[in-house]
Amino acid sequence: MNITEISRLPLPEAAEEFIRSAYAELGISDQFESRMVEVIRQISETGTYVHTRTELEHGARVAWRNSNRCIGRLYWKTLKILDAREADTDEEIFKALCRHLEFATNGGEIRSTITIFRAAGPDGAAPRILNDQLIRYAGYADESGSVNGDPSQVNFTRLCVQLGWSKPEKSRFDLLPWVWQWPGREPAWVEIPAELVMEVPLEHPFYDWWADLGLKWHAVPVISSMTLEIGGILYTAAPFNGWYMGTEVGSRNLGDVSRYNLLPLVAQKMGLDTDNPAILWKDRALVELNTSVLHSYAKAGVSMTDHHEASEQFVHFEQTECKKGRTIHAEWAWIVPPMSASATEVFHREYENKVVCPNFFYR
Ligand code: ARG
């Protein structure tokens, strides 16, 4: 959901609502009254208030728990919080982003992590990251409209080029630079340190020719374009990551017609008749693409879940939340995996798509 679409309470009320429920969940309700006195004082003196480390940590975790589109929420409590609220120079932002990649990647044993930068205060001086993810591949469109690389990144790639970024030789998998912006200033950009980006070359357990396709994907998806809302405070830069579910890469990023569109190539390599939809060449190519992704990430020692396991874990999440007396909300069309949907349990369930805070919002 977009941040402009939610009805936001006045700050003192939003703060109170969050702190009351957070402190109750954390078993520290005895500190609620005194904390509220402090929060109200801060708001009246400065127009805003500063989250304690405990509030920030709990708020970020609950924002994940409330993310209706995420199938991986069983692990919400394990989210690691890197507090970068003090970062106020470009150099410090850069260092914090490097730290995020290094810590989250963890040699392939991915840690779900969020780095939280300065909040948007009454002075508005909070940065925004313009990349939609910290690691993405460039998409170069030519005049005919055909794209080399990731078509979803064409506009952002154009922005990067306008800012002065370029590659001497263009490939399908060029790592885009990081771009961020402080209010009222020109965007700042910096080349992403390639040594911090773990990538997985794709091969296939029984097609030897597969590796020659020269495909790969990055290990960690770090969403960087969403605003984190906690207790009425907006963190406009709060990049966060989990680990991939195979279909995100195999079905969507590599398979979608509007992305790398690899089904026709794979089917042709498999010797399938692509003129006859009824032989299910798209479906067979999809299965092999996904097989290749799961196989290659496992071989490289990079955390990844498959859609069957993820679906089971989501159902488990529903049960644990229910036991805690909480209602879960979800967006069915996003929870249900993009392949073999009806073979996963979540397909057969119904969810209410109600948005509650703390949460992550599109800008
Ligand atoms: N679907 C997005 C991608 O392919 C990533 C979204 C977040 N996914 C995750 N497993 N945390 O890059």
Summarize the structure.
The chain has helices spanning 11-25, 32-46, 53-65, 90-105, 154-162, 246-253, 263-269, 281-299, 307-323, 332-335, and strands spanning 80-84, 113-117, 128-129, 139-141, 147-149, 178-181, 188-190, 199-201, 216-218, 222-223, 226-230, 233-235, 240-241, 244-245, 304-305, 359-362. It is α+β, with helices and mostly antiparallel strands and 363 residues long.
Task: Walk me through what this model shows.
The protein has 363 residues and is an alpha+beta fold. Helices cover 34% and strands 14% of the residues. The chain has 10 helices and 16 strands. The strands form 6 sheets. Strands 1-2-13-10 form a 4-stranded mixed β-sheet, sandwiched between helices. A hairpin with a 5-residue loop joins β4 and β5 (147-149). It binds arginine. Arginine binds at residues 72, 133, 221, 223, 242, 244-245, 248, 253.
